[in-house]
Amino acid sequence: MFRVLKDTQQPQFSSATYTSSSSSTSLSMAMDEAMINRLQGIKRSYLSLTERLGDPDVIADSNLLMQVMSDRSKSEDVVNAFDEVRC
Fold it and tell me: Does a structural domain hold residue 28?
């Protein structure tokens, strides 16, 4: 269900992994603590980047703004899938 990831890779879920509540329950049970901790860390980073988008210093620097937006978008699908599974 999951593949081994390098530190720089984001976990990826197939659409079949989280399409129904019964499959999300089985996925939640299948996730080990290390994977949950990693996904929670990705979510914390995502929320931090979202918060930075409102920082006047980030808004004033177009290059920094583009970098923050790019970094945030890389983890958005993972965070949304994790949130869907955890509900």
Answer: no
Q: Which domain holds residue 54?
A: 33-86
Q: Are 78 and 12 in contact (CB under 8 A)?
A: yes
Q: 10 Å Cβ neighbour count for 58?
A: 17
Q: pTM of this prediction?
A: 0.63
- Compute φ and ψ for 55, nearest 5 degrees: -75, 125
Contact between 72 and 50 under an 8 Å Cβ cutoff? The reply is yes
Q: Are 1 and 17 in contact (CB under 8 A)?
A: yes
User: Tens digit of pLDDT for each residue in 60-77?
Assistant: 999 999 999 999 999 999
Kindly state whether residue 23 falls inside one of the protein's structural domains.
no
